[in-house]
Design a protein that fits this description.
Strands 3-1-2-4-5 form a five-stranded mixed sheet. By secondary structure, it is α+β, with helices and mostly antiparallel strands. The protein has helices at 49-59, 75-91; strands at 2-13, 26-37, 64-65, 96-105, 108-113. The structure holds zinc ion. The site of zinc ion (ZN) has 5 residues, from strand 2.
Length: 114
């Protein structure tokens, strides 16, 4: 069974190698869409939504400067960074992160699928 959770966070970045307006400091309200797979437990849930939301939120760089976390914080690199952090945390609970979508606007996202 898969569950899907949508979280959001605000963070600033700049793209140092980009020739255009995104070279300069700016921010987004990023949307992170998680698809998580696991067995249905005795309580009828894959994982308590409240618990998994808290876990996911603890890894999201809310109100941070993304360039402090990585050299070139594109949506693609941010998706890879968060996937690498969150996937092992979910695995300790018997859950698999199948898909992570990082939306930097309403119409542009990077998608990482396992
Ligand atoms: Zn941007």
């Amino acid at each position: 069974m898969k569950i899907k959770l949508i979280r959001s966070f605000s963070a600033a970045h700049r793209l140092p190698a980009y020739d255009g307006p995104c070279h300069d400091l700016h921010g987004h309200t990023w949307k992170a869409v998680f698809v998580i797979e696991g067995p249905i437990q005795k309580d009828g849930m894959v994982c308590d939504f409240k618990a998994v939301k808290a876990l996911l939120d603890s890894y999201l760089p809310d109100h941070q400067f993304l360039n402090d976390l990585m050299e070139n914080p594109t949506a693609e690199n941010l998706a890879q960074y968060l996937f690498d952090k969150i996937s092992p945390a979910l695995a300790t609970r018997g859950l698999t992160l199948k898909t992570l979508e990082i939306w930097e606007s309403d119409n542009a996202a990077a998608i990482l699928e396992r």
